[in-house]
Amino acid sequence: MNLNTYYAQGRAALQRHWRGSGAQRLWQAWLAELLGLLPPRWRARLAGGAPLQVLHWPLDEPADPTPPRVLVLPRSEVLVQTLSLPAAAARDLHNVLGFELDKYTPYRAEQVSFCAQVLGQAGNTIKVRLVVIVRERLEQILAACAGFTLHGVDVRDGERLGINLLPDALRPQASSGGRLNRGLLLTCAGLLLTVMVMWLQSREALLIEMQAQVRQQQAQIGQLQQVRETLANTQGAARYLIQRKAAQPALASVIADLSHCLPEGTWLEQLEVDDGGQVTLTGQSTQASALIGQLKTCHSLDDPQFQGVIQPDGDTGKDHFSLRAHLHQEAAHGSSAD
Hints:
Elements: H1 3-18, H2 22-36, H3 40-47, E1 53-56, E2 69-74, E3 79-86, H4 93-99, H5 101-104, E4 112-122, E5 125-134, H6 135-144, E6 150-157, E7 159-160, H7 176-247, H8 251-261, E8 266-273, E9 278-285, H9 291-295, E10 301-306, E11 311-312, E12 319-327, H10 329-337
């Protein structure tokens, strides 16, 4: 069995499932609604010609064989059965009925042409209408209609059942309705693709907008962090200055301490205290060599040392000196506490 045979069998199976199904009826009703909204000229152009006409059996009088027709048989020509089957049978209804046809009719599957319609479902069972016609009788009827272009064979039981007993081999392969259906299917697919693209574009635009908002918020957060860092640095510098200032004794307490530590006959020409707590003393004294020992008794100074050499001053008769020392931190706290 070659590939073409598999393709033909698969196509025939799909057509059997499609014929008479609820989806087909809904599709046909929707197509009819759409065509009803169009002008008659447009409907004729989309349909590819004249609509299908009804031909009733038995043939009463000669008719024009040109337009495509649907042959409608009376109820007496067919056998109609209403069956209750498991719901699982709906997935392959034609093959299921063909396998068990002799159970529901006095004929075997190869002796008849049949069509099945799902009328409804109740729980795990489905209600099916089975329409059967003897193959030889159908061939006689089709031979009598040889001059007509038939697109289907339906049955009238008060009203048309909406089935097609025409064998697959005799059905037109490319009908105007098929072209219209394919066109509408392509149109629906194009509309669905357009909607999907528009939805993706809208989501992409929303994503771009959200990314812009996130970048703006990140920039604001960066500016806020910079402000916080600047404030923290400023507060740290202020605390450092306050601590340094609190750690150093007041200049008045240093001067008061020096007035007690310096011996008689000594005065200062220059007193300088820098930010690092270094104290520079410059002056004259009659006991310059003893100044180091005297300054060591000062609570506000640490590590006094001469800066340079002691030089005698001929005008005053005293020795000119220059000393360098450091402020004593603990002494500073003690002075502040006192």
